[in-house]
Amino acid sequence: MGSNNFKILSIDGGGIRGIFPAMFLVEYEAKLKADGNPNWQVYQNFDFICGTSTGGIIAIALSLGIPAIEIYELYCNNASVIFGNKRWLLRTFYKSSYKRDTLENLVKKKFADANNNEDPRMIHCKVPTCVTIYDLQDGAPSVLKSKYHEKFVRDYHIPAYQAALATSAAPTYFNPYSSEYVDLNGLNKSFHNKVDGGVFCNNPTLTAIIEVQKAFKKNLSDLSVLSLGTGHQKFSDAGMLNNNGIISKGLKKIRVINRDGKRNNWGIKYWMLSGGKKRLIELFMQGQSQQVQNLISLLQNGIDKQEYPNFIYHRIDTELDENCKIDMDETNKEKLKKLAEKASREFQLNASTVLKHFSKTA
Where does the chain show beta strands of DSSP type E? Predict the structure, then answer.
């Protein structure tokens, strides 16, 4: 497996935690540039880019030629305005937690700035690109694609910012994305009720591998895959329990564990409301992402992990422990800086491997 392998970049979903892959790629581009490589941008070094949700926004941005530093700054500078005006709890029973206006304006402007002040479409991606969505119109998962195969006749007409907003329309955080556009043939097209691809494909690495195998007729042995996560959290109770299984909240005491030691509050409050966290969504996303890693390990090394690796695969992620718990709608600047620091540290630890397998010589 040499340096001419088909290089794939895959980026997970995770809301504002997209800061992690964005900063990792900032470090990557800065290193290539410092080494005097004229082709230092991500899109110049990968043959295919895939993303889900926030990873989909980043994937499209990179493919349009936007430097990673601009994507990182967009996230850092605007977290508080994207996620700063959360609706009151009772209103979120009927409406999504946030309005999309700010995010839409930011993404649309950033993409247009990279395309001579005109809204680019998926066909303008400089490298083959796809993002995942769930289509409520059809009741089925879908992958939006740039024009990297002659059979693709629909998706490349879609304005890039609309594809980005569709893949990041996370349930309960934002409404399903709906809009319209005029395609390149002058026909009016509807683009309604699209939902975040993270509901079925938060880690899109396996999707990317299969797309490349079928669209470009590549074997597994032809591939070099870099998969970037957005940080993962282990699920555990953080409440301080006394010997009777009671958690204290001010003057109020609530029994959360039976006398035999078993938790008894596994309801909607625990999974969706307690502490402002949406544990159920996190659990679905993390479980799917972890299973993709398991399946890729099976493809790469076999059941007993005794097979010689069939292809190059490198996964970059970080655990968000008690010292760095970051929600998908986090706005605390200090926490976001910590996440960026984690990304920089991961790049330093993995730089030699990443640059060896995932950069192209000038």
Answer: 6-11, 48-52, 129-135, 140-145, 177-182, 188-196, 223-228, 246-249, 252-255, 312-316
